[in-house]
Sequence to fold (633 residues):
Amino acid sequence: MLKFLRRRFVFFFFTYLISSLMIFFLLRVLPGDPARVIAGGREATDQQVEQIRSELGLNAPLPQQYVNWLGNFLGGDWGKTIAFRGADNRELIVQRSVNSARLALVALLLSVPLSLVLGIIAGLRENKLPDVIISLLTLSVVSLPEFVTGLFLINIVALGWVRGPLAEALGWWFPSSSAVPANASFYEMLPALWLPAFAATLVLLAYISRLTRAGVIEELKRDYVRTAALKGIPYRSVIVRHVLRNALLPTVTVIAISITWLISGLVVIEYVFGFPGLGSLLIAAIERRDLLLVQSIVMVSVTVILFTNLFADLAYAALNPRIKLG
Amino acid sequence: MNSSLFSRQVAALRRFAGVLLRHPQSALGTALVFFFLFLAIFGSGLAPYPNPNDQRHDVRLSPTLDIGALQLGAHPFGTDRLGRDVYSRVILGAGSIFRIAGLGTVISVLVGSAVGLYMGYRGGWFDELLGRVIDALLAIPALLLALVLVGIIRNLDFEIGSWQAELADNVVLLVIAVLYVPVVARVARSSALDIKTREFVEAAEIRGEPTYYIIFREILPSVIPALVVEASLRFSYAIFLVASLGFLGFGARPPSPDWGLMVNENRGGFYQLTPWALDFPALAIALLVIAVNLMSDGIRRAVQKGN
Fold:
């Protein structure tokens, strides 16, 4: 166990180092001069460029700039934005991350139970009608790009169906835009979260249900299932007590994969719905050429992904005693 | 290459195509992909208005397509708010998505398999180090990296007509190629690890063949099935990525007839005015993505059955 932990942590730090190096150098070494871009392109005078250069510490040698930047990042000093009127990068990113996390939470709460059920049904009825229907659905409709499903939900569901008599009788409806104030509370935000969360759910469904289906099919082929059936244990309890218990172990990993996917999938979904999350902040930061903000956002995303994967690996190892820890 | 080997390969290809087309889903997907490929190649001959930005038409005409009567009419998919024929634009848009996703996939598969095969064959510290770097690269989501790269490269200003400007115009293609190299390399590496312990590789080593010969003539042929599956999977992701980048405004620039861009240009308030200008390109993206998914699923199944 100790050896496993040590290896896992070494890998974690190595990956963190490499990705931070890459994020830094990609944004600094590419041809072109960030200081000149900030100063306003070709029209800027050399003096203006030089001033910005010294303000940003761009005159130091590159390795030193990297160390300074990483040190500042880990120390919590993420600088000020250029794009958002000098707001503090960290405050901005933390606020938007909380919003994205709320959206991700609603999406996971909707998608994980639903897709587990669909995956189990498909796996237990391999190549029968329910499986064919579920597989075809997950392969086609729900594997569409997020912006297609998102726009379908906005244009057809929010603007079309939901204004009908049924919705009025029930007294609720989905707003077609999720452009809520960034500092709204979770409760205030909730109506605006349903549609984007549903768009994310559709894509996650494809992912999780296919993995679950594969897990169930694999477990059903094991010898112990046949033994249990031959012993006369009822089918239902073979499935519930033995097959599902083993087949659902990888769910921990599945949720980790979903969170990794959500980080990029939410960029598109937040943009479509105008939701003030981390993804829409990233797009705005890139469009306004705010390098420091872009670097911090990508670093935050990588940090979340690496911690999720680390946690998933540890949880998986703890839950499954058969895994060789070494 | 002697004739018996050639005919054996033709037979293998035919078997492969047979398995691929036997499943109705994958047959449908493959047919649709070839339909879009046909549009991509011959689009400028098929579109009624070969210039996508032809504005000589009335603005905001509703679609004249009548499926019941099998009639196209003057503007089958209507015209957008600038008076451009949506039908022609959708047809002409097939070219760019196929060129970018297709070429990007081809480059990444070629480079990635060369790197991966070398890593797997050579092994040792080189493999260990590069493998860790690849794992680290894959920790950053592809879309995030693509957005950052495209955003930065496109904002640099180059001399018009210089080779850098030429490169910057094809930035999405390059980014896709670069992003998928590590993914392909990882697959090629693990397949090469499996093959390199076989007797025929050892025999070639004892004969004293050079490394490139062993990698490309001995190992590569056995790895091709795995690479074909990976290539088809990459292609489907690439189509997805090109469409998403186009939609986010990080792909083709206006006024090019890019499907993702057309969807973005006609959403929001414009959707009330000309819903067809959004619906048809969105439908084209949806059909192409589904078709490519069904086809790559079929290719995976056919290759697994072949082994």
Chain B has one domain: 41-294. Chain B touches chain A through 44 residues (CB under 8 Å). The mean pLDDT of chain B is 88.
